[in-house]
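Reviewer comment 2.1 asked that we show a complete input and output for one of the modelled complexes. We chose the beta-D-mannopyranose case, as it is the one discussed in the main text.
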Amino acid sequence: MRLHLLLLLALCGTGTTAAALSYSLRGNWSICNGNGSLELPGAVPGCVHSALFQQGLIQDSYYRFNDLNYRWISLDNWTYSKEFKIPFEISKWQKVNLILEGVDTISKILFNEVTIGETDNMFNRYSFDITNVVRDVNSIELRFQSAVLYAAQQSKAHTRYPVPPDCPPLVQKGECHVNFVRKEQCSFSWDWGPSFPTQGIWKDVRIEAYNICHLNDFTFSPIYDKSAQAWNLEIEATFDVVSSKPVCGQVIVAIPKLQTQQMYNLELQPGKRIVELFLNISKNITVETWWPHGHGNQTGYNMTILFELDGGLNIEKSAKVYFRTVELIEEPIKGSPGLSFYFKINGFPIFLKGSNWIPADSFQDRVTSELLRLLLQSVVDANMNTLRVWGGGIYEQDEFYELCDELGIMVWQDFMFACALYPTDQGFLDSVRAEVAYQIKRLKSHPSIIIWSGNNENEEALMMNWYHISITDRPIYIKDYVTLYVKNIRELVLAGDKSRPFITSSPTNGAETVAEGWVSQNPNSNYFGDVHFYDYISDCWNWKVFPRARFASEYGYQSWPSFSTLEKVSSTEDWSFSSKFSLHRQHHEGGNKQMLYQAGLHFKLPESTDPLRTFKDTIYLTQVMQAQCVKTETEFYRRSRSEIVDQQGHTMGALYWQLNDIWQAPSWASLADHELLSPTNYHFLSSLKEAVGLCKAQITAIISQQGDIFVFDLETSAVAPFVWLDVGSIPGRFSDNGFLMTEKTRTILFYPWEPTSKSELEQSFHVTSLTDIY
Ligand code: BMA
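Response of the prediction step:
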């Protein structure tokens, strides 16, 4: 057995005490289903689906129709258990806690056969006192209840009035009542995603033992004092003091690069204690601020905090501190009614250009550091500076935000509520309050997060009456809305984090929403706040159809993923646009028809005699259509920054829907299987279907290697629009793609993300241009 024993603090010098020991319960556990007919090993962190797959008991869940075939997994009630010996003398410790960083979702926890607690929120962190039940040899059991069954029970128990929507649209093939459970909302299906309501322990589990006192967590917020023209740092440390007497000592906070060191005296009374420290940085020292990508550096400073307490107890922590200010500016605009809606970073107005982020996989244990880094690096490589972490997914893992800090990606952080109304009974609110307080603490020290937003589209759902609520019943739902997002979530944000703005919803009218009692008649107004805009009927080459809004936080068009992506999860009979598979993977009503309609406005639709060729060409054309539509719309928003036309304009943000995909299916994503659409610009004087003189372009490539990079020297026999270079499943990025080739030769670079060879690339290489289907 591998011991995961971590000595948190070094024993240094005579009389120095180890403050705490931590023993991780990561690794192998046993899993069994409700009636005991299935027993298997499973990894923690992980989930039942992944364990079944790893044992060869199920196929890849994303293959063909397996989302339906494997529905039984999430309808069963599974148990995770483990027996273990603690590799240190447990009786020597005054307090022992079981810490669960993430449990998915509904479970009862037994420790040495004693029930020690329950969980009902995958976004919360749980800590249970096990001092009186822990022994040297222990057993632990998490008895899960299916989140789908739990959600149904909760909805049924809510008898006073319904809380819609009951179920997702049939086309999504999902589960019902997700709004009654604090779990990733899109795990019950979405209009781009499958239904995989996982069960399991999705984050770290450990045992923590300590004497005297323990530092539970610490946070910090840099605050700029305008009048003194100096930076300060507010530090907050939370302690559990288990000593029966007060614990005294001192704290030393140091930021060497800023020549800053400060010492404070400390007296901690027994019990849970919060220590607040205020660090002044001399105004004579130049502090380099953190800037978004494209606007400056992301300078950070190493800080250490050393608590030297009675009895030789030393607790030392270190962190990277970044300094930046953020303001949301809502002020009158000359020549336009309403208010502006834009962000100033370090006092400088910045256009937010980027996209919306969804969970990178249905099974979070498959989301690796490498995947996050590749996706986020692609964001900056494409010259984006912002991602919106959308409210139907998850609060992302720490590494996501650390990378955003490092890369200069601004994060618009939703709280995890989306496209639904929510209950507000006390149990639900208590769970949400714990979740929100915890997430604020966990995330507030990241400079990348520039705004908190209460939910995704719930103000709009309510006020545009998506669920056909009678006008007489509406006040009940407005009251619930205000209770949840204003009286609870907003209150917690204001108390826990003064360093960034909060809005109740997206889209919202900002200050106007507040003035109208927290719900606006039309939350999607062009004159206030942000908008979400989707139109699949109008011609997307006509920029006049787009709203000249203050801030477009969602807009987009669907396309199909590349054939090489689909090939892995389908079989030959699936390879046509009208196959059962193609209909099954499309979760947006009418989506496949909408794509062909939009493509048909400017392109000839593929009609090869070879059905596979037609399928591949159709996929390609949906991507070309999507690229053109998103380009036209994005350029419109960028132009609208400096214009007021018909009293509308001053757009200061364009975040298209959506950056990434959760599985291989049609969606609004333009970054899937690690490919990146090009930012290159060009203008067509007519629809391509009317262009005359286009003839079939023979495009060849000579591939050579230069260090880690591959050079593709292309040559074409004719003008070729939308040249698409494809290297199958070899992950990497082309320096340009989807481009118009008017010149005879062109050199494109390929940056592989994993080691590959020239011959592998030559074998996988495939090039398509519009002339192939004309
Ligand atoms: C918005 C988003 C998502 C959805 C997208 C495309 O409503 O917030 O809920 O996936 O549009 O329909």
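Residues 611-639 form the longest helix (29 residues). We note this here for comparison with the apo prediction described in Section 3.2.
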